[in-house]
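re: the backbone from monday

yeah here it is again, tokenized this time
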């Protein structure tokens, strides 16, 4: 298969593996090939050159990566770099670098199970009873709290544990079987930072 692709595809794969990611070349739906990377909670990323990876006799003109949820629903563009002079994306244009290392770094960040760089727009926010879980870190009280929010906007505490730093709060979440689904935001009116949570196996 690799002998049908541009020689740089091997370097792209190597960069993903060096970043600790599992990456394989798979057939693309519209023909050709893409690089597939499995992520947490059934998410996955596809890497191509905007449509498919270039063939051996074609020019590599772009590196493009998109993130999908477990149902195949598009979530986010993780990375885009191309040599198109009309492209207005940062880092693009004639002479743009197609070094695969920044691509690998962006994918590693986006697919890190501790803090994906996307907000899932799917049922992964909820358990089977339609409940959303949110974490709060209160630096004044040195406490991490998990809140269970029903879809009818009734909220109640689920758990609270001591946490002096944000890192401590994330340790609490991991120990209880949760993972941040969004970046920490806030502060809220009481000074807390908060993030929405994923629950493994939901």
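seq for it, each position gets an aa:
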């Amino acid at each position: 298969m690799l002998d049908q692709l541009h020689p740089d595809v091997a370097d792209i794969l190597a960069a993903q593996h060096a970043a600790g990611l599992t990456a394989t070349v798979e057939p693309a739906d519209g023909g050709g090939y893409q690089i597939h990377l499995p992520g947490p909670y059934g998410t996955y990323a596809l890497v191509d050159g905007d449509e498919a990876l270039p063939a051996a006799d074609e020019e590599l003109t772009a590196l493009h990566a998109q993130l999908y949820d477990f149902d195949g629903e598009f979530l986010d563009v993780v990375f885009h770099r191309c040599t198109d002079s009309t492209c207005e994306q940062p880092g693009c244009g004639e002479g743009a670098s197609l070094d695969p290392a920044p691509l690998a770094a962006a994918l590693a960040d986006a697919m890190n199970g501790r803090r994906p760089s996307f907000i899932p727009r799917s049922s992964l926010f909820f358990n089977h009873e339609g409940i959303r879980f949110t974490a709060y870190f209160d630096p004044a009280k040195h406490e991490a709290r998990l809140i269970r929010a029903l879809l009818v906007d009734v909220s109640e505490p689920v758990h609270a544990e001591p946490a002096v730093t944000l890192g401590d709060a994330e340790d609490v979440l991991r120990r209880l079987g949760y993972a941040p689904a969004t970046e920490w935001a806030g502060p809220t009116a009481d000074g807390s930072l908060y993030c929405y949570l994923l629950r493994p196996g939901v």
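The chain has a mean pLDDT of 81. The chain has three helices and ten strands.
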